[in-house]
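anyone else get weird line breaks when pasting these?? whatever heres mine. first is seq + tokens for prot A
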Amino acid sequence: ALLLHLFYRQWQLAPRLAAPFETHLARGLLLAIAAGCLFNSLLLDHTEGLLYAWMTGLAYGGLQSSPRATHAKPR
């Protein structure tokens, strides 16, 4: 259940990424891993698990903490 919730949250947060290409990349990764997990647990395999972790970090690394985040002006 936690893995499905993680996939759901990542799918929800994908449109908040900076560029449409990043949104498509993040959602494509989720679809590939979800489809692979239907037949075999890809996340337990060393290479596929590292690919998912690495690509998730790269894709969501630039995500802002909230959609209405305002930056404090330096004094």
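and prot B, same format (seq, then tokens)
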Amino acid sequence: MFSISRWQDPSTLLFTSAPLRRALAATSRPYRARIVLLTLLIIGGTLLPLAPPLLYRSVIDQLVHGSALEPVLPIAVAAGVLTVLGILLTYAYTTMASSLGRQIIADLQMQMYRRLASMPLEFFTTLKGGAASARLTTDVYTAEPLFSRALVGLVANVLMLVGALAVLIAVDVRLAVALLLVPLIFKFVEVNERQIRLLIRVPNELNTDIATGAESLLSTPGMTLARQSGQVTREINRFQRTVERLRRIAARLAELGTRITTGYNLTFGVATSVLFIGGAWLASIGQLSIGSLVLFLLYIRLVQIPITAIGGLRYEALGAARAFERVYEVITAEGTPVGKEPNAPVEQAEGTGIVVSVQRGDRPPRAALAFERVWFRYQTFANLAIPKPLALGRG
């Protein structure tokens, strides 16, 4: 039906494919103003949560040095206000991203529907039953997270990660060294990611097979043919094998994802322990304040959250990118614009009222029949032989 361009090879990183980036840019171009506003909300909602821990450090250090409550109360209130503002901005950009993503998906769905409607008739003679509806539904909705969650989450988490690392290094480089343990997890992640990249494309293809198979069989012509040829049991078994394979792949993907999440948590647990022990030692010899130690413990969490989230979003984005690829290749497929069908030469068979329209050219000829001067009339009531029980009485 369509050629799969394989924009994103399983062995490559997400969004490193130039065709995929160009397709995303072309799709997002009509929404530039809303995307700019969304970006500003993301920046505000991501960077504001980095400020309260700095204020907490100031409050703790002043209290440790015997300060009264009055001088630190405004700082504590400011930390609370910034926290609330960060939550509100996060809610705003999450809601806006969801709305914008759904709008993009709806527009893609309409573009794909128009493109399919413009395809030549020869296209539909080779189209598998259910294939078009699978592209319009399964693939479109699978691609939605790419615009509503994945890209937004990627930007927000990268900003938070960069900001948190910058603050940690600025506060104390010695404790920031504990974060060197984090890259160790990526070796473990790489082993599992290799398997995930190989499996991530398969569910979309299996879901399409399920949809096309069910639509082909569960119809009057399909079921009639299957029963006449005694193939109903065979089709049911084939459907069961596909569903079972899909279940195994989904379970395997979930297991691999859980392994990676566990690896992240284990690594950050060890890093937090190392940081706490080192920070306690520095605090005991007077080279680190208690507030700075608390700051590091809070920020190690702010580093863990985006790294874990980026890992999870990446797998969702991989699946969504596969579906978006399938959607976009339909939109960009060559077709005959609706209402722009080429005119064909007209010939009339001698001695008949039939006009034959033949399309000549490189393609196989296409013929159309048009009838001229065709008429009919109903018989008069008097000429109809109506049984007496059904005859209408007079009066």
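btw re prot B: The first helix runs from residue 18 to 28. Residues 346-390 form one domain.
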